[in-house]
Design a protein that fits this description.
With about 300 residues, the chain is of the alpha/beta class. The chain contains eleven helices and nine strands. The structure holds NADP nicotinamide-adenine-dinucleotide phosphate (NAP).
């Protein structure tokens, strides 16, 4: 089959959009859009949600009877195992795994306690790897694909999103290692890295940002307070003004799953692409200068802040 679509030409250079695909974090934002888009294209979509009611809501939005919600919390090994067992029972294999579920824990690193930092890594890194491990036998059987959702912040860390950046850097490293480990087994692995896209994550980040400085003594919070507040406000504005849409993201995931020769990386949005380029080309001092407005000007050699 071949023909023109929003993605270019199906046929030569494209694989058919068929077979089961699991999308984690499909209750909202990018995962939701992606699940509905992949269903529309022809995939059998297993839409990962943490609550039954989110699955029911998604079903009311599904138009093609090819989407089934599956309850999976990526930090809960039993639920991940149950998900893999269900995929095995109902489909026998897996054509694609989209590791999209994620959270963002904002705050100056000095103000985050170990539990907050652990939660960030539990969801975005350790949970993600657990999902990969549980589904690899099924992906191997189908010569399937893994799509890891990272971010522009997986290549350059900005102040006040250090925990999130650390998780994205780690996810990038896992992606590279998995890509090289699994290539001989016929499982392709690639990254989809979006820039700012307006989704519910930004509301959650703003709320968490409000509380980020509350848990530490005022003397610890004070040096950061004004700059952090300005950063959070700027971030929210950037997301609201972003011209990149969840549909752009869903299209990139679809390409990663159907390109006959998938790229190793699909950037989504000019800001993400720019971040990747800056991180690759600029030496550290120039990158520092690029981000210097965020946390405030650097102290001079005497340790005093410039006036
Ligand atoms: N939006 C952006 O600007 C942007 C930019 C770069 C990268 N990203 C990445 O894109 C991905 C999706 O973000 P989004 O903007 O769509 O955020 P979102 O609207 O907040 O969606 C996050 C999804 O992850 C799920 N999730 C959270 N913790 C989970 C857990 N323990 N187990 C399973 N699912 C869990 C959430 O489920 P619940 O509803 O149950 O909490 C939700 O479905 C994230 O990995 C994020 O880092 C987003």
């Amino acid at each position: 089959m071949s023909g023109r679509t929003a993605y270019g030409r199906w046929g030569a250079g494209r694989l058919p959009a068929q077979g089961p695909v699991l999308v984690t974090g499909a209750s909202s934002g990018l995962g939701r859009e992606c699940a509905l888009e992949l269903e529309a294209l022809g995939f059998q979509v297993l839409a990962g949600v943490r609550r039954e009611e989110d699955g029911e809501k998604l079903l009311t939005e599904s138009l093609h009877d090819r989407l089934r919600p599956v309850v999976v919390d990526v930090t809960d090994e039993a639920s991940v195992r149950a998900c893999a067992e269900r995929v095995e029972r109902e489909h026998g294999g897996l054509r694609g795994l989209v590791n999209n579920a994620g959270i963002c824990v904002p705050g100056p690193l000095e103000c985050l306690d170990a539990d907050q930092f652990r939660r960030q890594l539990d969801v975005n890194v350790i949970g993600h790897l657990g999902v990969v491990r549980a589904h690899l036998p099924l992906l191997r059987r189908s010569r399937g694909r893994i799509v890891n959702v990272t971010s522009g912040l997986g290549k350059a860390a900005v102040p006040f999103l250090g925990a999130y950046s650390a998780a994205q850097f780690a996810k990038e490293a896992l992606n590279d290692a998995l890509r090289r480990e699994l290539a001989p087994q016929g499982v392709r692995v690639c990254v989809v890295a979006p820039g700012a896209i307006l989704t519910p994550i930004w509301g959650k980040v703003s709320e968490a940002g409000e509380r980020a400085l509350d848990g530490v003594p005022a003397a610890v919070a004070e040096p950061y307070r004004a700059a952090f507040r300005a950063f959070m406000a700027g971030n929210a504005q950037q997301a609201a003004a972003s011209r990149t849409t969840p549909e752009d993201f869903a299209r990139a995931v679809a390409r990663a799953l159907t390109d006959a020769r998938p790229r190793t990386r699909y950037w989504v949005g000019a800001d993400a692409r720019r971040m990747g380029r800056l991180a690759r080309l600029l030496p550290d001092p120039l990158l520092d200068r690029r981000f210097s407005g965020i946390a405030g000007p650097a102290a001079g050699p005497t340790g005093r802040r410039p006036r």
